[in-house]
Amino acid sequence: MCGIFAVTDNKNASKLAYVGLFTLQHRGQESAGMVSDSGGRLLYYSAMGLVNEVFSNEVLANLKGRSVIGHIRYSTTGSSNLKNAQPLFFNSCLGQLAVAHNGNITNAGRLRAELQKAGAIFQSTTDSEIIIHLMAKYRGRNLEETIAKNLRRLEGSYSFLFMAPGKVIGARDPNGFRPLVLGGMDGSHILSSETCAIDVVGGKTVREIEPGELVIIEKGKARFKRFAGAGSFTRCIFETVYFARPDAEIAGRTVQTARYEIGAMLAREMKDVKADIVSGVPDSGTAYALGFSKESWIAYQAVFMRNHYTGRSFMQPDQALREFTARLKLAPIKDLIRGKSIILIDDSLVRGTTSRKIIGSLKKAGAKKIHMAIASPAVISPCYYGIDTPTKEELIANNLSIDKIRRFIGADGLYYLSLESLVKACGNGGDRNFCTACFTGKYPTKITSQD
Ligand code: AMP
After folding, report:
1. CB burial class (10 A; 0-12, 13-18, 19+) of residue 308?
2. Domain 3-233 maps to which CATH number in 3.60.20.10, 3.30.450.20, 3.30.450.180, 3.30.1490.20?
3. Catalytic annotation, residues
4. What is the mean pLDDT of residues 213-242?
5. Per CATH, the architecture of 239-440 is what?
């Protein structure tokens, strides 16, 4: 997963982009970068690390200009190194050009092979670079036409930000898998992965970019253009389940509200399960547990002390590091746990390693019983659209029955939310469509080749 943020026509562009990216930090922690438009000349800077490690005051001051696009990266395609940090920047036959991408191009392998065969030399191993090579090869009458015709060659998920001198262009794939929202602030335009970053910089959300739509921001004005028909809008349901910040709004609902309701639905589905307290695995589990508590009348208790300085454990691509940071992250508060039977809620169960560790530490702290409740259905299929789920073989629900998973994680009970309830809560009861491929194995687009 990644986060993208752009701000135009503002004298503090790089500082605002810093605040925007900082707010989106939960979407990626490996690298960060910005490209600014300094009077028609693009300047760029990127480095490995967190936003506050990458951008010093000096770096921000050097990113001169009134428009900036920025990116924070968590790698799903291409390894974690500086060459793959974004925005990617090019001096091309189209002039100076930069691109920032959130998503995963599912026909990247084939497109890359075709382009390389025709002589293209790639500077990174990301799938994001493919669009630039396509654009250099298949040109239209102007930049937006060139972008539009080449986006149609891509399969999979993408929200893109492009920058060329005098222009910022945003694009969202025809299924709208990944989010992209337009905001405004005193004559400036903002594009962001999540509404919360628009709020934090002091802007107002205008609307989502539609699936298959381009927004062209030029000379202080935003224009919209379709590059693909309005196909089926299948936004990723995992954004609400896990990825997005609780104060972001998705499909007309604040994520926190949706999670609270999901928790209540889980309580309804688990009405026969008795416990002394209900708790959530911080941070995302907390809202679910509060909703569960309200519905079930089982008291909520925060049984973990979360260390906020470790980063998201799953975000470390290396397994050894992942295990180490997981141990650092959550410390059980023993007094609240000893002798208690606990309903413990987490947003998802993927490999089962997190639940196993957490239940182990609660049992060690004296818990009598742990009923593990998952605020989503069993993950049975890999995500090809940018969520870092492992291969089918590594997905525990694909290999073991519910009872065997329960035993593996060391729980006294294991419960998953039904897909029906999840979709209902995320879509505000309306007819919103979501991509639920990770829970059903039904992919809304064809999956041709992977990198
Ligand atoms: P696992 O330990 O493999 O079962 O993963 C489940 C845990 O990882 C849950 O606590 C989730 O909050 C978290 N999680 C699930 N999916 C992701 C993801 N794509 N990226 C980061 N964390 C995730």
Report:
1. exposed
2. 3.60.20.10
3. 2
4. 94
5. 3-Layer(aba) Sandwich (3.40)
